[in-house]
Amino acid sequence: MSDELSNVPKAVAGPSTFLDDRIGGANFLKRNLRKIFPDHWSFLLGEIALYSFIILLLTGTFLTFWYKPSMMEIAYDGSYAPLKGVMMSEAYASSLEISFDVRGGLLIRQMHHWAALLFVAGMMVHMLRVFFTGAYRKPRELNWIIGVLLLTLALAEGLTGYSLPDDLLSGAGLRITEGVAISLPLVGTYLTFFLFGGEYPGEDVIARFYSLHILLIPGILLALISAHMVLMWVQKHTQMPGKGRDNKNVVGAPFYPAFMAKAGAYFLFTLAVVAGMATFAQINPIWLFGPYTPADVSAGSQPDFYMGFLEGALRIMPAWEINLFGTSHAGTLPLSVIIPALVPMGIIMTGLALYPFLERWVTGDNREHHIADRPRNNPHRTSIGMSAIAFYGVLWLLGANDEISAFFHVSLNWTTYAGRVLIFVAPALAYMITYRMCLGLQRSDQAVISHGVESGVIKRLPHGEFIEVHTTPADDIEAHIRGKEPVLMLPVAPDPSGIPPKGMRGPIGKLRARMSKTYGGEKIPLDDGHGHGHEHEEERTAVGSADDDRSLTR
């Protein structure tokens, strides 16, 4: 091997030399083990989802050794006395066996459930971080699409896993799934019979969900996560604006040993949190619900949080339907089910998938971006994101409208009516409030650049007024603020003869021009001439004059 590794740290050079002598991988290892990763707390959010997925794979493998995906009815003869002799499916009986008779089974089952919730929550928060910082822009659009697919598949994975215990609570969710499937025009009946193997509940749905849950969906998730990681590795990680950072470099720590050590510790920390919650916080006590029968439903039943927004949409939707052919069942479209099932998910997922391309169409920004935006510096994007969160949050909250009504002693009807109003009003309010907050924060940044930061030194002016002396901000703070870039805007001004630019003509062109003018441009410039007046010059020159007999220190 050449002396290429002579200047590389021994921790890297040793393993590299060992492998190079055997497979000739010195250049590959040197290049990748020294890859730089930026250091910012928000970049760890995606790792929570990754480590939760690993925990899911490990605990799920353990559970498959004892779980029986069968709907054949048997009389329970296990350790849980209150259910002895009760007829139930083998799936439910094996879930009880895991909980009470398998050593460590209840701990692993609860770890699996908590990790599933953390997996979806981690993905959601990670996607919000990517969205609000603009990290989906060129060249990362493909990775963003993969992320949207991952979130969609994670919801499907959660739905199939939630139904496997075949208890009364999961059965209620399965009944809603059947109602949504059968309401679909033309294909609903065929899809339902295919899924359940005949008339609901059939005898095949648990076995089919089991195959989807442990084979098909995890396989696709694993492939997409691998592709997501490879693309991130090849395209390099985004970084927050700061001193010495630009679109051509990455400032941070090397993958080996610094990042690997932190990642390993973070995985163990995530595992400890999941194990701690599984130990001290009970989740899904299936023995309290009993076996599922289509004729029963438990009071106050709620789905896992990631399905709460679909539950809320079903609850607040008016009982609308369309009869195409009089009263014929074949021509009935139950909008009260179709709209909640398809529209909220369609708005959120389609909006996420298309947003990078819509933004580029509006702004004309085809540049590569490796520096992340601060959310305040793109107020319209941040406001759109908060509107989506408000839309999701109202639906999620109204998924528990019965519990809210009972706890606060409010009419259930009025709770539902309030939800129907809030679903339109809350996103609009969130947009307006967020936009004003972003502008306010930009003005705060402008004040820091123009006037400096508070020094804690109070000075008394000759005419008796007390002021606080401001000082120049630290280099790293100033660089972080000055990393702001104006949002690009299309050239919309007509030429001297009054003809609009190409692409800005016609109804679509005029709409695009108006959207670009609103969305893009600099809202609050950092340097606008403020801060050079006599009073503020006095404040700046007063730094270091604490020995003045009229100066005080806080």
UniProtKB/TrEMBL annotation:
<keyword id="KW-0408">Iron</keyword>
<dbReference type="InterPro" id="IPR027387">
    <property type="entry name" value="Cytb/b6-like_sf"/>
</dbReference>
<keyword id="KW-0813">Transport</keyword>
<dbReference type="InterPro" id="IPR016174">
    <property type="entry name" value="Di-haem_cyt_TM"/>
</dbReference>
<keyword id="KW-1278">Translocase</keyword>
<dbReference type="GO" id="GO:0016491">
    <property type="term" value="F:oxidoreductase activity"/>
</dbReference>
<keyword id="KW-0812">Transmembrane</keyword>
<keyword id="KW-0249">Electron transport</keyword>
<feature type="transmembrane region" description="Helical">
    <location>
        <begin position="255"/>
        <end position="281"/>
    </location>
</feature>
<feature type="transmembrane region" description="Helical">
    <location>
        <begin position="417"/>
        <end position="435"/>
    </location>
</feature>
<keyword id="KW-0472">Membrane</keyword>
<dbReference type="InterPro" id="IPR005797">
    <property type="entry name" value="Cyt_b/b6_N"/>
</dbReference>
<keyword id="KW-0679">Respiratory chain</keyword>
<dbReference type="GO" id="GO:0046872">
    <property type="term" value="F:metal ion binding"/>
</dbReference>
<feature type="compositionally biased region" description="Basic and acidic residues">
    <location>
        <begin position="524"/>
        <end position="554"/>
    </location>
</feature>
<dbReference type="GO" id="GO:0005886">
    <property type="term" value="C:plasma membrane"/>
</dbReference>
<feature type="transmembrane region" description="Helical">
    <location>
        <begin position="176"/>
        <end position="197"/>
    </location>
</feature>
<keyword id="KW-1003">Cell membrane</keyword>
<dbReference type="GO" id="GO:0008121">
    <property type="term" value="F:quinol-cytochrome-c reductase activity"/>
</dbReference>
<feature type="transmembrane region" description="Helical">
    <location>
        <begin position="113"/>
        <end position="132"/>
    </location>
</feature>
<feature type="region of interest" description="Disordered">
    <location>
        <begin position="519"/>
        <end position="554"/>
    </location>
</feature>
<feature type="transmembrane region" description="Helical">
    <location>
        <begin position="48"/>
        <end position="67"/>
    </location>
</feature>
<feature type="transmembrane region" description="Helical">
    <location>
        <begin position="144"/>
        <end position="164"/>
    </location>
</feature>
<keyword id="KW-0479">Metal-binding</keyword>
<feature type="transmembrane region" description="Helical">
    <location>
        <begin position="337"/>
        <end position="358"/>
    </location>
</feature>
<feature type="domain" description="Cytochrome b/b6 N-terminal region profile">
    <location>
        <begin position="15"/>
        <end position="241"/>
    </location>
</feature>
<dbReference type="Pfam" id="PF13631">
    <property type="entry name" value="Cytochrom_B_N_2"/>
</dbReference>
<dbReference type="GO" id="GO:0022904">
    <property type="term" value="P:respiratory electron transport chain"/>
</dbReference>
<keyword id="KW-0349">Heme</keyword>
<feature type="transmembrane region" description="Helical">
    <location>
        <begin position="379"/>
        <end position="397"/>
    </location>
</feature>
<keyword id="KW-1133">Transmembrane helix</keyword>
<feature type="transmembrane region" description="Helical">
    <location>
        <begin position="209"/>
        <end position="234"/>
    </location>
</feature>
<protein>
    <recommendedName>
        <fullName>Cytochrome bc1 complex cytochrome b subunit</fullName>
        <ecNumber>7.1.1.8</ecNumber>
    </recommendedName>
</protein>
